Amino acid sequence: MLEVILKGHDKYYGVSDVVRMFCGVPEELKDEGKVIAPEGPDITLINELFEDGRSVTYSENKAYEFKGKLLEPGREIRRSLYMALSDITSKTMPWGCLTGIRPTLVAWEEDSARSLEERYFVRPDKAELAFETSREEQRILSLIPEESLCIYVGIPFCPSRCEYCSFISSDISCHMDRLANYEKALEREIELISGTIKRPIAALYVGGGTPTVLEEKEFSSLLDSIYSNLNIPSGCEVTVEAGRPDTITEGKLISMRDHGITRICINPQTMRSDTLARLGRRHTAEDVINTYRKATDLGFDLINMDLIAGLPYENAKDHIESTKRVIELAPANITVHTLYKKRRASISREQVMDLEMARGSLDESVAESYELLKAAGYHPYYMYRQKDTGHGLENTGFAKGDTGNLYNVAMMSDCRDVLSFGAGGMSKRCFAQEGEPYKHRVERCATIKDALSYIRRVEEMAEKKAEFFSM
Predict the structure, then answer these.
(1) Does CATH number 1.10.8.100 belong to domain 143-459?
(2) Which of 261, 269, 278, 381 has the smallest set of CB atoms within 10 Å of its CB?
(3) In 10 A of CB 20, how many CB atoms?
(4) Where are the domains of the chain?
(5) What is the pTM of this model?
(6) Using one digit for the tens of pLDDT, what is the confidence trace for 88-121?
């Protein structure tokens, strides 16, 4: 069992993040001042932070310390611990000692990819990816005025729950009666808050779950409410995560088009129909193609399509083939996610991590899919990471030309305010720090997650958010 004793600091979260990469899920024993990992090597380490800002991780017979310019304390303790565990386990991680959700924010601070390699032990290909993506994120962020507001409207329901998902969304086959009531509650919240919004709206995103799980009448009614209550300027980016082809009807596509929405998501996740069936998705690869063509025929020219690398029931080559098939459709955006272990998902952590590479090298398949995308004229425009992701990889959005999604960049950067409607939504205000153009202090305001409780307490949620944004 690995035991890491904290000395001179109480940064349990950072220590746990690094331990998790090498040794599985750790346990924080704060009363004893340590973090343990039952799956780790049988060794005790001391992770010490000194008054001068240095961090040294050491055992009985060896010490690990970075000799160079010091980082801030939280990063420094991660760096020395990473050095120790990398040496002890003979493993390196694609992102080195970077453990946060937004590696591009670190890349924003650096003047070259090489600096990420040297200071954080990031692998060269990932350092280049982060550096390139960070510059595109900055460009897109500059298109979103700081005084503006981004809007999120959430529908946390899906037609069925995918095996890899533990999202708060409900399987509506069990809760059909809730859907219409939930949509009316959303309209009510939008109506209550709309009068308090005095700032220009820069981007609006209707997400889920699967928003198009609503019946055509309710779906159109929700769009009516959004456009009649919110002052959405001409040309404003409005995205609907139409998501699963089995919920996208011609009537819903026409409703979106008639409301002026041009940006939608049609998400296959994989182009293997047998995998889709085994995961619990009620559509085929052919359904994806047919729905995509129907959307383009109706005039939708800004479409994002999601793929997931590392799915169970597939090998690495299958993901590459799915990437090729989606590229053939030529959507404006393609987002490559890496499967990660969601807390309440039925899929096991062992299946997700696939440390023995029983399904082939996930790392290599993701790298190859990136090369295919770049060869087809796509470039990365935003990126984020999640814990317990297969082989420590990332999620990256690719775009053709100037088609990157403003809302995605605003939301992931924590540099622009977001007002969220709906159960489980997280509103946030981002306050710029003097001398730090890309670092903001963030305050958050959460909405109750349970859909039934949200319906009952919608006036309370609206009042809470109105007060939050008036502060």
Answers:
(1) no
(2) 278
(3) 17
(4) 1-91, 143-459
(5) 0.92
(6) 999 999 999 999 999 999 999 999 999 999 999 9
